Amino acid sequence: DAMVIQNPRYQVTQFGKPVTLSCSQTLNHNVMYWYQQKSSQAPKLLFHYYDKDFNNEADTPDNFQSRRPNTSFCFLDIRSPGLGDAAMYLCATSHRVDTQYFGPGTRLTVL
Amino acid sequence: GESVGLHLPTLSVQEGDNSIINCAYSNSASDYFIWYKQESGKGPQFIIDIRSNMDKRQGQRVTVLLNKTVKHLSLQIAATQPGDSAVYFCAENLNSGYSTLTFGKGTMLLVSP
After folding, report:
1. B62 strand-pairing partners
2. Other CB atoms closer than 10 Å to residue A29's CB: what's the count?
3. What residues contact B59, with CB distance under 8 A and at least 6 apart?
4. Is residue B2 predicted with pLDDT exceeding 50?
5. Residue range A22-56, pLDDT digits in tens
6. Chain B partners of A41 at a C-beta cutoff of 8 Å?
7. Which residues of B touch A (CB under 8 A)?
8. 3-class SS at A75?
9. Phi, psi of A57 (to 5 degrees)
10. Which residues contact A53 (CB under 8 A, 6 or more apart)?
11. C-beta of residue B64 within 8 angstroms of C-beta of residue B35
């Protein structure tokens, strides 16, 4: 089945230790998104790629970076995780203006 | 650790009842709306969508109503089941040429057997 896959599902890191979260898709969608979601809150868009064009939200901290080496894969890099970065990180994809489809998320814990 | 979350509005219903979840959206220029269901520990799951040229759309056991005059969206779930228990988010697309969604705050639906 076509889908959005996120790895790992659970990630534990230490304060200040860089971490990379992975997203892959078999939908061949041209847009990929990264969201941060904290407990009992709505997903908050961090950035997205439209094909190879990177679009950063104005309030996304510089600590968060992203890479999209090809259509299928997109990575979220957190350069120096702080305690406040502990959250669920969601990847989503869409084909232009169509519906966004979400992966299962990666739960990040920062010790 | 993670910051303390806000308390979500909660709708409690009995199994078999019909549920109505409401959402006020923010931008009168939005032209596409989606309802997502999110179960604990999972990613949001698409339920149903509607475009601004419609005021009603029906799916299997779900209906979405759009009132552009008052910028209001609702999700009706018929014969609610315990498996429907989840947080429901509405999202609006701000007609930016591609899909950039703004999510509403979410409503928790609790279904009792």
Report:
1. B77
2. 21
3. B47, B48
4. no
5. 999 999 999 999 999 999 899 999 999 999 999 99
6. 5-6, 105-106
7. 1-8, 32, 34, 36, 41-46, 49, 89, 91, 93, 97-101, 103-106
8. strand
9. -75, 145
10. none
11. yes
Q: CA B78, CA A24: separation in Å to the nearest integer? A: 35
Cα dihedral A17→A23→A29→A30 (10° resolution): 20
Which H helix or E strand runs over A106? strand A106-110
Tell me how many residue pairs between chain A and chain B have CB atoms under 8 A apart: 75
Distance CA B99, CA A97 (A): 4
Residues 19-58 of A with CB under 8 A from B: 31, 38-45, 48, 50
pLDDT at A2 (0 to 100): 62
For B89, the closest chain A residue by CA position comes to A42
